[in-house]
């Protein structure tokens, strides 16, 4: 029995609630909605780290940031075991087009082919650098990443850099799929091999640009968050460490462009699915995954970008579709994590699941099998920021000098009340602190931490 082909669709910075299948009645996402209607939606899926590089690295490694040493803006070590490297061992042609965000020397990370862009090789630090020479050169202070303030002020209709990037990624994907399944010129298709193909787009990551039609369509329809930051010293900050002061008009422009970018992403995915069907593929034979690396605050709680443990930032959309393997049309509420995709895909494809992962196979949930699910999900940022979600409770730790936070999403879905000191939560708080120590964090951190112990 040949192993199933896998199509892995990924966007960047896509809020879990800005999709039609998630109940959003404004955004146009017919392709994602079809995947959801015929697949399985995970309603409580979380990133292992709410920022691009560690979130993506941990997903590929099937391990939390502390386990794989990606607690900051770090790549995996060269040659690290990733799901692309593991599937390559089983004769899969592992191919990626688009954003991987690998920043170190190992630009392939187990992929056998990368067909379109985001493949700049960066050597990293120079082992025997002469510090005096490097000290002679400093960047001009006026040239730096836009502030969140300017991101909002610049949002408008137009063709931004990520629109062009994504179009190249999709074009490369379509060309590669044509060669893999048909290759009319050289008559050397590779379709005798199983294919693991990932299309990874940069939208809807800021800067916020979209075409005029989409901008006009969404401008007067989108919700606008005009909230004030809370008084917590960490949760109140944007990624750049200060609140954003923007007009309602600027926020509306950015939100409209953001919605338009998601609309465009959905169209790109549709072109890939249409291409596969035109090449004679039955999509029901394919395992199709859709997700994103993290969310986007969009001004909720007065914050933009990500790096927070609010739902808008740490929660991600996740759909898995394979009609030949399990029934679709279902929504699951278990707490899961992007790290779980490593073990899940291995399990579904019939590969041996490697040891030492922080990855639990979702296959029993997908197949509606009886399973004693450990209903937690963990996310980490830097070395001392940790979120543990169990059932509807979300505990957050930010180091010894910063107040802990406990949200109860059943009582307070807007995440405005810290229940940590409420007597009725005392037992749960004690359990969370014990689990924090097991995960290698806090004042009683396990000094022999190896992994999450799933």
UniProtKB/TrEMBL annotation:
Keywords from the UniProt entry: Hydrolase, Metal-binding, Transferase
One of the record's GO molecular function terms: transferase activity
Record's signal peptide: none
Entry keyword annotation includes Protease: no
Cross-referenced Gene3D superfamilies: Alkaline Phosphatase, subunit A
Stored SUPFAM superfamilies: Alkaline phosphatase-like (SSF53649)
Highest taxon of source: Bacteria
Gene Ontology CC entries for this record: cytoplasm
Cross-referenced PANTHER family: IDURONATE 2-SULFATASE
Sulfatase N-terminal domain span: 4-350
Protein name: Sulfatase-like hydrolase/transferase
